[in-house]
Amino acid sequence: MTALSALPAPLRRAAPLAGAAGLLCVSGLAFVGPPEWGRGPLTVDALPRVTYTAHRGGALEVPENSMAGLAAAYARGTAQVLDFDTRMLRDGTLVVMHDGTLDRTTASAGPVRGLDRRGWQGVRLRPAAALPGHWRPERPPTVAEVLDRFGGRSVLMLEAKDPDSLARLAGLIRARGLTRSVLVNSNRPAVARRAHQLGLVAQLWRSARQMRTDRPARWAGYVDVLDMDYRARDADLVRAVRSGVPRVWAHTVNTPRERDRVLRLGCDGVISDAPGLLARTPQRGAMP
User: Fold this and answer.
1) pLDDT below 70 — which residues of the chain?
2) Strand partners, 251
3) pLDDT digit string (tens) for 239-276?
4) Across the chain, what does the average pLDDT equal?
5) Are 185 and 205 contacting, i.e. CB atoms less than 8 angstroms apart?
6) How far apart are CA 236 and CA 234, in angstroms?
C-alpha cells in the first residue's frame, strides 16, 4: 500500500497529482515530498548567482500561462524560475491568467472574475499563431494545479494580480510546504509587505517611470527580489542594485544586448519571454 492510498478519501482528493509536490500537511500528517526533492524542495536559496526566469513560461516561445508552456519551459531547462500570473474567480478559485478579461488569450470573452470554477472548465486558451511549434487549445490551469505539478521541482514566481487573493495564495503555498520555493510578485509595495508578513518570499516589480522617483532602500526590510524594468536609466538600475535588497532582477529582457547591459550594471537575474534565445547566446563581457 502506498502512502497516498493509506490516506482517508478526502485527503487523497486533496493530495497533489502524481509526480507533483508531495502530500499535504493535513490533520497532523507529516509532509512527504516527491523523490526528486531529495531532502526537500528546490528553494530560492539554491538559485545560481545569475538567475533566468521564463516570463509567463516564455511567452515568445510557448503559449503564455499555459500548462503545456510551463511544462515545455521546465523540460528545456533554459530558466531556473517559471513565472505565471494569478487571478481569482468569483467563488475564490485561483487561476492562471494575466489579463482581467478572457478576450486576448482565450476563445471566450468577458471578465475572469465573472466565472466560477465550473465555468472555468469551459475556457480554452488560443495559442498565438506566431509561436514556434504546434500547440493545441487547452484549459488554463488553476494555481493549485501548477503548484502541484512544478512546486518543489522548480522555483516558481507568481504575480498576484488581485491583491485580495493574497491570503488564499498563502494558504495554497503553505499547505504544500513551498514558502521558500515560490516568489510572490506585485507592483505594489504594500502587497509585497503583506506577503512578507504572511511568511512568503516577496517580490516587487517596478516600471521604468516608477523607478525615476523610487527609493528602493526603503523596501530592503521586506522585499526579497526587486524586479526592475530593463528600460530604466542606468542610474536608476544601479540605485536598485545598491539598495540592500538581496536580489535585483530585470524584466522583460528579450535580447542578448538587453541582457548584457543589465548584468553589467549589477543585476543578478533576467526575466525573459525568450529564455531559450538567451540561453543559446553567450553573454558578452561576462566575468571569468
Assistant:
1) 1-38, 286-288
2) 229
3) 999 999 999 999 999 999 999 999 999 999 999 999 99
4) 89
5) yes
6) 5
The per-residue pLDDT for 236 is 98
What is the model's pTM? 0.87
Per-residue pLDDT at 40: 79
Phi-psi region of 80 (alpha: psi -120 to 50; beta: other; left: phi over 0): alpha
Q: Is the CB of residue 164 less than 8 Å from the CB of residue 89?
A: no
Sign of CA dihedral 143, 149, 150, 152: positive
Q: Of 275, 284, 288, whose CA–CA distance to 51 is shortest? A: 275
Written as nine digits, the cell of 281 is 547566446
Sequence-separated (6 or more) residues with CB below 8 Å from residue 141? 66, 67, 95, 96
pLDDT at 36: 62
3-state secondary structure of 220: coil
What cell was used for 30? 507529516
Return the pLDDT at 206.
98
| Residues 83 and 284 sit within 8 Å (Cβ to Cβ) | no
Compute and round to an integer the Cα radius of gyration of the chain: 19
Cell matching residue 180:
521558500
**Residue 59 half-sphere exposure toward CB, CA atoms < 13 A:** 18
Using an 8 Å Cβ cutoff, are 276 and 133 in contact? no
The pLDDT of residue 11: 32
Q: Which of 248, 246, 253 is nearest to 279 (CA)?
A: 253
CA–CA dist 214, 205 (Å, integer): 11
What is the residue whose three cell numbers read 548584468? 263
